[in-house]
Amino acid sequence: MGNDGGSIPRRNEMVREKKKDEKADRKNQAIALNFFCALSKQPLEQPIVGDELGRLYNREAILEYLLDRSAFGDGHTICENIQCLKDVKTLNVTPNPAALNSERQQANGGKKPALLSFDAQPTSRFLCPITMKEMNGNMPFEFIWSCGCVFSAQARKELPTSTTCIVCDKPYDLVDVIPINSQDSKVADELRERMRARREAREDKKRAAKSKSKPKSKRKLDVSGSVEEVNIAVAGPADAPLPSSPLASKAGVKGAKVQKTMA
């Protein structure tokens, strides 16, 4: 193979080069995840919601899906974890002034840039309110499930000891921090575990509230005027008399008058 009078190998046969199309695919995939609704495939527009796995949707698309599960061909696969509006969180995103200016220029007849283009980096509609970095897939972003605020992971790491949101200053737990569109399988597995735990806690809270609102005792009045206990044991001595009902009292007074007349 070379230097022996035979064929001379080419450079691409000896050195493994990273293909440009693979790099373009990764970039376009990041753009698709951060610029488009995961369900409708339309550009993300406010109001935007996120699920517990970090995927982004237009709220209008989610409402349409919940009303008609067949509205989107692959909706049952993409939104298998979304059964109601409680399974998504409305996000507090920060608009990007540069994107607003670009949209104004387009409205005035300017050239519209192609989003899925390897040659040009599109301008994201949203950015981190702390670092001012665009949410375009080049750096990781997060949101907090309890308040819905969106920011870059770098911004939160600059305040590692803080227990309040860096945007709205509301307290939060670390388990409520959800990475947006993470491609790490370990992160995805962890988010699924958090989702299960969060939903189990929600169901437990619902059952506890339901049992608390249930009446402790139920009584019904029969035609003879006696009180019958239903599904409850009355505390006190076994021979303690039950309280008399209005009908029983009237019957007792009437009987006493009859006995007096006979006497």
What does this structure look like?
The chain has a domain at 18-199. 36% of the residues lie in helices and 12% in strands. The protein has eight helices and ten strands. The protein has helices at 11-14, 20-35, 59-67, 75-78, 97-107, 153-157, 185-213, 246-262; strands at residues 48-51, 56-58, 88-90, 94-95, 126-127, 141-144, 150-152, 177-179, 218-221, 227-230. Strand 6 (141-144) and strand 7 form a beta hairpin.
Label this structure with key terms.
263 residues; alpha+beta; three-stranded antiparallel beta sheet; 8 helices; 10 strands; 36% helix; 12% strand
Would you kindly provide a brief summary of this structure?
With 263 residues, this protein is an alpha+beta fold. 36% of the residues lie in helices and 12% in strands.
- Along the chain, the helix and strand elements come as HHEEHHEEHEEEHEHEEH
Radius of gyration: 34 Å
In total, the number of strands is 10
Q: What is the helix fraction of residues, given as a range?
A: 25-40%
**Alpha-beta content class:** alpha+beta
- By DSSP (H or I, 4+ residues per run), the number of helices equals 8
> What is the terminal separation in angstroms?
136 Å
Low-confidence stretches: 229-235
Give the strand line-up of the largest sheet: 2-1-3
Strand content: 5-15%
Could you give a short account of the major beta sheet? 3 strands, antiparallel
| 3D shape | globular
Average the pLDDT over all residues and give the rounded result. 79
